[in-house]
Every structure is written in structure tokens, then in C-alpha cells.
């Protein structure tokens, strides 16, 4: 009777049945304390913590099993402080923990990040001779990893006589967490056994450290094994597609997600929205958003930000209004998206209102990103004096990103005096950032102050600051191709340049005039056109036209802000070739279609 009843209490997951059995247990007289112990354990295993503690407190005698049961339950369900309090109370009562007790309580130390106390427990474990136990050792490795002490974790790992897949995964996760992807990969390759957590950990590590190609390759390699990706695996790989603008891979993974039944997972759904947004397909992002059975604040925020970076300001604000109607509380990231939407669409009055609304109605203290959005909004719209006054009234010191936004506005509106002042702030705070020098140089060039242009370039040379070369990439048939300025490394170089020559001839006939304002004045006019004509995004477009079917949109990513000449040329090209051309530059998306751009030439 006792053995069967214990098994029922430990494994039964139907609350009603568990309550019935345990209700009867309180009325049975024989071995009542034994049944109460089993009921406490049963409730604990099923997450009914109040009921478990109720039976726990009824016990006339408590042993290490009953204590361990409730400690493990509180740890498992995220109540780490309560778990540690119970563990300390157990020790004060004179009950000595066993191997299972220590393996159960160590995750609580890991969750709270209490490294000092964790080390004390480690010493106790060594004194009792439990360090060689694989479960205790794995828990120690995990604790040190989560307390950011990878070195201590590795010492425990290396001394363990026996390791299981949990141990290997914990140590690998430690190196991933600290950005040491090479060491994580070494461990991964030497694992005697790998499970889906092993693969997901390294894939996630690649993505977090910017190795997007490697992440996709590893995911594809995993697909050739018998293991099936879970929702966490898919949520981990989708950002790699987004950052590479690898829409083909992203759509393949989306199909697999649907086949695997994870399309209703909110985290996977959020990942899909973000991926499609970054790949330039706002329509697909909106479709995923609309089909999600449940959405959280991240879902709404990701869609608002998506509209914002694509230049659809009014749609972003409308969606934000819908978010409020649904009773979803926006957070600080949501308001970054809202303010960015106002900025990219030139909605100055709306931006001012939402900034005040964030503080007044939602009690959100503005962070640097919010201030940066406001300076960008005001500066880009030509309110440079108001932007400067706004900065003076800020309760926090402006950072380089904020000054950079104002310097960009000075370039747009040719404000030399303010531009020189802002550039000085940037040269002092970020003397090695070439973008600041280039912006000031362009301000001078637009004003025809060529001596000042030369002085800026001379300063760059003295400080050994080198310009970041323009770079664009395009995905064709699930392969990403990279182009640089005047690139001639591609096997199709002759065809690419021939295609460009044809395109330039065609767009000049319909009104295109090369913008050579920022090319040095002592260069011949024809040579100036050559400089701007071979920018990386133009080469990528020519390649895309040569290697994709008519009517297929061309999607390109550029590492820098698209220049005025390329923006003008691509508008004309989109009309000539009857294609949508989507460019994701360092700041935003540009959708070119039929000779127009989604930004309305406001960027």
C-alpha cells in the first residue's frame, strides 16, 4: 500500500486526483506521517507549493528526503530565495543534505548569482566527498557559469571523473556566454554525446558573436542528424537570417517551423517578425504578426519598430494605438520604435507629443536612445537650434550617438558653424571613428570649402583614422554575395560592369544626373562620375539583375548610409527595370519602386 501510494503521489499530474488521495491520507491513521510525507512530495513535484508546504509543516518528523523534495520544488519553479531559506533551515535543524539535496539547491545559487555563498557550498560538498557525483558536479559547473566564473567552472569540469551531456552543455554554455566561441566549439566537437541543447547552445553562440554564416551552416549540419530542432533552436537561428538579410534561408526555416508545429510559439513568432523585417519583407512580417494566436509586448514592439525602420511612420503609430486598445503596456523599447517612426517620417509634432506621453502617461524615464531619437527628429527636420537647446536641457550627458545624429543633421542642412562645434565634441569622445570626420568633410565639400576638406583628411591621416569601405551584400539562390567599392573580384565582373554601363545610359536618358558634390574638386568630371558610379550597392544591383528572374524584388544590405547619388540612381533604375529594389543601409530601409522611394527623399 505504502509503495503504491508513494508512486501515485510522485507521478500523478491531475490536481483533482492528487487532492483526493492526499485528502484521504489525512484521515488514515496507520502510518499517517509516511503518507503525509508522500503527499508533500507529490504536491511539490507537481508545482503545488502551498499545498506541499502545508503537508510539510504537518509532519511530526522530517528527514532529508522530505526537505530535499520541497527545496527542489522551490528551485525548479523559480523561487530561489525561498529554496535557499529552506536549505538553511534544514541545516539548522541538524539534517545533513545528501547528493540530491546539493544538486537541487545549487541552481538557486546560480539563479541569484550569489557566487560567494556558492563557493562555501562547494567547500561543503568537497568535505562530504560528493564532488565526484555527476549530478552534483554538473550543478556546480552550471552555478559557476551562471555566476560568470568560467575559470572555476572549467576547474570543476576538468576534475570530474565522469561527465554526462548536461555537464558538457553547461560548460559549453559558459564559453558561449563569455563570447569565447572558439573554446565552446572545441568542447562541442569533443562531446561524446550531443543533444538538441548542445547544438542550440553553439548555434546561439555563433549568432550572439556575429558569426551568422557559421550559425546557418551549423544548423544545416544539425539537420543532417537524427535530432529535430525545438522552438529555442529556431528562435536562435532566425536572427542570423535577419542580420544577413538571407530571406531565402529564413523562408526555408519558416516552412520547417510550420511543419514542426512551432508556428504558434510566441518566441518563434517574434523571431519570424524580426527576421522578415530585417530581410526587407515587411509584408511577410505583418502576415506572421496577424496570424499569431497570442502576442506579448515584444510582438507588438517588434512590429512597431519594423514599420519605423521601413519608413512607414503613420502605420507604426496606428499599430501603437491598436496596442494600447488591446491593453498591452508599452515599454521603453516600444517608445524607441514610436519615436523612430516619427523621425523617419518627419512627424515632428507627433514625436514631441509621444515623448511627453511616455513620461507623463507611462512613467518611463527617457534613456539615451529616446533623447537620440528626439535630436534626430528635430535636426533632420531642420530645427537645429531646438535640437541644440534640447541637448542642453538633458539631465544626462549626451553620448557620441546623439552628437552623431546632430552632425548628420548639420550635413543635411549645411550648417557649418554648428557642425564644427558638434564635430569637436565627437573628435574628443571618439577620435578614432572615421564617420565623424567624413560627415564634417562632406559639410565642407557641400559648401565648396575644399581647403577645410583637405584639413580634415590630413587630420585623419595624422591620427591614423581610416575610412570604413563601403560594402553591400545580396542573397541569390540562398547564397550571399559581397561587393565593395569598384569591386572586380567577382567571376561575373565583365558582365556586371557592362550591365551598369547599360543602366547608366538608360537612366541618364530619363533625367538622372550624377551627384558628384562630395568628390574632390581637383578631379576631372568624368573621373568623378566613375567614383560614384561604382559604389558597392550599384554593383550588387547589377549582379542581382543578371542573376534573378524578371519581376523578382532585389534586396540589398549596405554597411553604411546610402549616398545621395546612389539614392537618386536607384530610383531611376527601379523605374527602368520595373523591379522593387529594397536597400537596408546603416540607418533604415529604402523601398524603391517605379521611380519613387518609401522615404520620400527624407532620410
The amount of helix comes to: 55-70%
- Strand order, sheet with most strands: 2-1-3-4-5-6
Determine the structural class based on helices, strands and strand pairing. Answer: mainly alpha
**Beta-strand segment tally:** 6
Mean pLDDT: 87
Largest β sheet strand count, sense and barrel closure: 6 strands, mixed
Terminal Cα separation, in Å?
Answer: 77 Å
What would you say this structure looks like, in words?
The protein is mainly alpha-helical. The protein has 32 helices and 6 strands. Helix 29 (493-509) crosses helix 31.
How is this fold's topology laid out?
Blueprint: H1 2-11, H2 15-25, H3 32-45, H4 49-58, H5 64-76, H6 80-92, H7 99-112, H8 115-128, H9 134-146, H10 150-159, H11 165-177, H12 181-190, H13 196-208, H14 212-223, H15 231-244, H16 247-260, H17 266-278, H18 282-291, H19 297-309, H20 313-325, H21 332-345, H22 348-362, H23 368-380, H24 384-393, H25 400-412, H26 416-429, H27 434-446, H28 450-462, E1 471-476, E2 479-484, H29 493-509, H30 525-533, H31 536-547, E3 554-558, H32 564-577, E4 581-584, E5 589-593, E6 596-597
Parallel strand pairs: 3-4
Antiparallel strand pairs: 1-2, 1-3, 4-5, 5-6
Helix pairs in contact: 1-3, 2-3, 3-4, 3-5, 4-5, 5-6, 5-7, 6-7, 7-8, 7-9, 8-9, 9-10, 9-11, 10-11, 11-12, 11-13, 12-13, 13-14, 13-15, 14-15, 15-16, 15-17, 16-17, 17-18, 17-19, 18-19, 19-20, 19-21, 20-21, 21-22, 21-23, 22-23, 23-24, 23-25, 25-26, 25-27, 26-27, 27-28, 29-31, 29-32
Amino acid at each position: 500500500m505504502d509503495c503504491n501510494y508513494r508512486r501515485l503521489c510522485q507521478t500523478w499530474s491531475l490536481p483533482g486526483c492528487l487532492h483526493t488521495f492526499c485528502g484521504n491520507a489525512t484521515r488514515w491513521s496507520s502510518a499517517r506521517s509516511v503518507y503525509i510525507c508522500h503527499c508533500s512530495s507529490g504536491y511539490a513535484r507537481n508545482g503545488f507549493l502551498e499545498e506541499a508546504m502545508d503537508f510539510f509543516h504537518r509532519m511530526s518528523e522530517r528527514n532529508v528526503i522530505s526537505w530535499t523534495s520541497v527545496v527542489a520544488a522551490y528551485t525548479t519553479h523559480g523561487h530561489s530565495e525561498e529554496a535557499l531559506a529552506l536549505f538553511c533551515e534544514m541545516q539548522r535543524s541538524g539534517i545533513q543534505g545528501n547528493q540530491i539535496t546539493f544538486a537541487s539547491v545549487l541552481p538557486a545559487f546560480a539563479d541569484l548569482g550569489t557566487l560567494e555563498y556558492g563557493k562555501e557550498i562547494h567547500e561543503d560538498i568537497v568535505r562530504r566527498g560528493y564532488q565526484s557525483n555527476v549530478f552534483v558536479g554538473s550543478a556546480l559547473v552550471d552555478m559557476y557559469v551562471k555566476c560568470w566564473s568560467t575559470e572555476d567552472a572549467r576547474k570543476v569540469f576538468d576534475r570530474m571523473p565522469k561527465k554526462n551531456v548536461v555537464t558538457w552543455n553547461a560548460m559549453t554554455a559558459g564559453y558561449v556566454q563569455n563570447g569565447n566561441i572558439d573554446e565552446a566549439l572545441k568542447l562541442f566537437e569533443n562531446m561524446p554525446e550531443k543533444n538538441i541543447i548542445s547544438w542550440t547552445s553553439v548555434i546561439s553562440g555563433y549568432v550572439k558573436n556575429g558569426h551568422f554564416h557559421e550559425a546557418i551552416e551549423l544548423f544545416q549540419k544539425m539537420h543532417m542528424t537524427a535530432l529535430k530542432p525545438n522552438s529555442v533552436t529556431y528562435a536562435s537561428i532566425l536572427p542570423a537570417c535577419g542580420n544577413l538579410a538571407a530571406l531565402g534561408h529564413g523562408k526555408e526555416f519558416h516552412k520547417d517551423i510550420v511543419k514542426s508545429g512551432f508556428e504558434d510559439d510566441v518566441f518563434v513568432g517574434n523571431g519570424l517578425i524580426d527576421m522578415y523585417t530585417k530581410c526587407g519583407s515587411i509584408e511577410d512580417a505583418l502576415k506572421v504578426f496577424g496570424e499569431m494566436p497570442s502576442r506579448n509586448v515584444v510582438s507588438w514592439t517588434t512590429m512597431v519598430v519594423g514599420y519605423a525602420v521601413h519608413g512607414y511612420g503613420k502605420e507604426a503609430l496606428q499599430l501603437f494605438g491598436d496596442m494600447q486598445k488591446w491593453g498591452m503596456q508599452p515599454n521603453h523599447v516600444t517608445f524607441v520604435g514610436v519615436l523612430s517612426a516619427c523621425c523617419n517620417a518627419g512627424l515632428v509634432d507627433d514625436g514631441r507629443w509621444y515623448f511627453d506621453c511616455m513620461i507623463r502617461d507611462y512613467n518611463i524615464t527617457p534613456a539615451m536612445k529616446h533623447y537620440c531619437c528626439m535630436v534626430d527628429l528635430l535636426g533632420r527636420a531642420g530645427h537645429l537650434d531646438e535640437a541644440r537647446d534640447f541637448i542642453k536641457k538633458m539631465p544626462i550627458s549626451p553620448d557620441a550617438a546623439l552628437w552623431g545624429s546632430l552632425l548628420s543633421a548639420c550635413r543635411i542642412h549645411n550648417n557649418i558653424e554648428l557642425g564644427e562645434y558638434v564635430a569637436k565634441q565627437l573628435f574628443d569622445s571618439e577620435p578614432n571613428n572615421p564617420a565623424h570626420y567624413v560627415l564634417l568633410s562632406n559639410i565642407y565639400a557641400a559648401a565648396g570649402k575644399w581647403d577645410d576638406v583637405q584639413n580634415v583628411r590630413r587630420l585623419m591621416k595624422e591620427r591614423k583614422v581610416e575610412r570604413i569601405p563601403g560594402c553591400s551584400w545580396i542573397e541569390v539562390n540562398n547564397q550571399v554575395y559581397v561587393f565593395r567599392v569598384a569591386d572586380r573580384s567577382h567571376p561575373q565582373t565583365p558582365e556586371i560592369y557592362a550591365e551598369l554601363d547599360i543602366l547608366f545610359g538608360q537612366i541618364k536618358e530619363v533625367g538622372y544626373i550624377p551627384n558628384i558634390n562630395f568628390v574632390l574638386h581637383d578631379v576631372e568630371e568624368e573621373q568623378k562620375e566613375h567614383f560614384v558610379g561604382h559604389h558597392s550597392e550599384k554593383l550588387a544591383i547589377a549582379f542581382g539583375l543578371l542573376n534573378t528572374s524578371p519581376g523578382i524584388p532585389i534586396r540589398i544590405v549596405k554597411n553604411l548610409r546610402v549616398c545621395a547619388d546612389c539614392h537618386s540612381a536607384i530610383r531611376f533604375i527601379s523605374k527602368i527595370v520595373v523591379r522593387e529594389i529594397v536597400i537596408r543601409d546603416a540607418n533604415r530601409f529604402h523601398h524603391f519602386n517605379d521611380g519613387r522611394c518609401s522615404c520620400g527623399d527624407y532620410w
